[in-house]
Amino acid sequence: MADKILIVDDEREIADLVTLYLENENFTVFKYYTAEDALRCIQEETLDLAILDVMLPGTSGFQICRKIREQYCYPVIMLTAKGEEVDKITGLTLGADDYITKPFLPLELVARVKAQLRRYKRYNTGAEPEEDIIVHSGLVLNIRTHECMLNEKPLSLTPTEFSILHILCREKGNVVSAEELFHQIWRDEYYSKSNNTITVHIRHLREKMGDSFEDPKYIKTVWGCGYKIES
Fold first, then answer.
1. Would you write out the chain's pLDDT as a tens digit for each of its 231 residues?
2. Domains identified in the chain and CATH numbers
3. pTM of the entire structure?
4. Distance of CA 83 to the CA centre of its chain
5. How distant, in Å, are the alpha carbons of 13, 15, 61, 151, 164 from that of 141?
């Protein structure tokens, strides 16, 4: 069955072009030019990924992302204006998994869509040759079902947040650099030393876990090196 992808962008040329490229890759695409139509689609269809333009008239892409995260954990990719770093940080904080800056190459967006779907679907296939359940100090990750519990209470994590926690738990006791986290999650070469994507996700993850930055119980920052969870 083809993966179902939502795209909403009021720039019709962009939405139409992206739709063409995605359909050529055999995705089922739900294309909309307004937030209102997209929000209806989110409730009526079982989606696998959403591509949201930040700057929409009326309801913004940020608001749509927030609505998605109230119910669903499938990947969200934000389309942002060139140089709008604040948009990227805001989107990631609200639960987006990736962003791409306009103007962009359609093939790059397709590649990012495939990377996000591979990672998201992997949790439901049991393809990784490792234990299905990871337990650490009140934290329980179910790799197959993509569920996370902390002190017997469920944590609602985005696919990217789950991936970061999964990697750090798997490498328990070892330091994992931001660059290594980035490449393990996105599997591409778009990382640069100024990239703050991982930093934003780590901060959001700590907030959800109630983990202190100054005296963390779980995710510790090793300055100049990366992050780790103590063994």
1. 789 999 999 999 999 999 999 999 999 999 999 999 999 999 999 999 999 999 898 899 999 999 998 888 899 999 987 666 666 677 677 788 888 888 888 988 998 898 888 877 765 544 444 467 888 888 889 888 888 999 889 999 988 899 999 999 988 889 998 888 888 887 655 555 446 788 888 999 999 999 887 888 899 999 888 999 986
2. 4-124 (3.40.50.2300), 127-229 (1.10.10.10)
3. 0.61
4. 20
5. 42, 37, 30, 12, 12
